[in-house]
Amino acid sequence: xxxxxxxxxxxxxxxxxxxxxxxxxxxxxxxxxxxxxxxxxxxxxxxxxxxxxxxxxxxxxxxxxxxxxxxxxxxxxxxxxxxxxxxxxxxxxxxxxxxxxxxxxxxxxxxxxxxxxxxxxxxxxx
Length: 126
Hints:
Layout: E1 4-7, E2 10-13, E3 18-24, E4 34-39, E5 46-51, E6 58-60, E7 68-73, E8 78-83, E9 92-98, E10 115-116, E11 120-125
Parallel strand pairs: 2-11
Antiparallel strand pairs: 1-3, 3-8, 4-5, 4-9, 5-6, 7-8, 9-10, 9-11
């Protein structure tokens, strides 16, 4: 079992940057593939970015490609989402998620993830 806690959200003007963090409990952080998702009011949960277990492969939604970067620090048990060039349409609650340890690859499907954080609010003003 792993517990996830996101932080780093806030209010930012369009064009600004934020870095979200997701701290994970447990001693086997490096053995999880992980992802970031977001959910805006009245909308379905949306894939943002994912990273495989080894950290060498990443994949992004077209809407954030070139602006967002997912990364991990195994020594700190933390996964990050660096968000640059923020737009009002990026406003949402952002969640990190981990797959079960048996899976090596990341995924863009929310149903493939077993562990979820509570989320952190990101609001981008125009």
